[in-house]
Design goal:
This protein is mostly helical. 46% of the residues lie in helices and 5% in strands. The chain has helices at residues 25-54, 76-81, 88-91, 100-109, 120-137, and strands at 13-16, 141-144. Strands 1-2 form a two-stranded parallel ribbon. Helix 1 crosses helix 5 (120-137). It is globular, with a radius of gyration of 14 Å.
């Protein structure tokens, strides 16, 4: 369902997003739906796992208060690698031979680019929570929905 996106393993720490963060879960689900929110959380977890593997210290170079997933230099990849245009590096893609469609599909799978189910506004909120938790705990954590396994 999520293409080539990697998922977090059972050995990694998961945290539940508290209901009092930014918007309540009810507001998020009401605004984006029962499919969009869980899918976006899964994509962000996959993107974080990819960056953990490719650039373990990535989280310390990303400032949650400056995050803007729509801006090429302020998005997760932009703050980690200098520009979203360098996303081919963690994706392990050859920029000369990879189609724009393949590149965009991969970026969407990892929560770095929007689509109809994971708009930039929702990606911003989920990534900010991920970053805030990782900065506070000083360890990799992954998100799960309340009541999730």
């Amino acid at each position: 369902m999520y293409g080539t996106a990697q998922t977090a393993t059972a050995l990694q720490t998961f945290v539940t997003i508290p209901r009092h963060m930014v918007e309540t879960w009810d507001e998020l689900f009401s605004k984006w739906g029962d499919t969009d929110v869980p899918l976006t959380v899964e994509r962000v977890n996959s993107g974080a796992a990819l960056l953990d593997e490719k650039k373990p210290d990535w989280v310390y170079g990303v400032l949650p208060e400056r995050l803007d997933m729509e801006a090429t230099e302020l998005c997760i990849i932009g703050q980690s690698y200098g520009s979203f245009n360098k996303a081919y590096i963690p994706f392990g893609m050859d920029v000369a031979t990879t189609s724009i469609e393949e590149f965009e599909a991969t970026a969407i799978d990892y929560g770095f680019l929007e689509d109809d189910l994971s708009p930039f506004a929702l990606l911003d909120r989920v990534w900010v929570f991920m970053l805030t938790e990782r900065h506070a705990r000083k360890q990799p954590v992954f998100l799960k929905l309340p009541g999730g396994e």
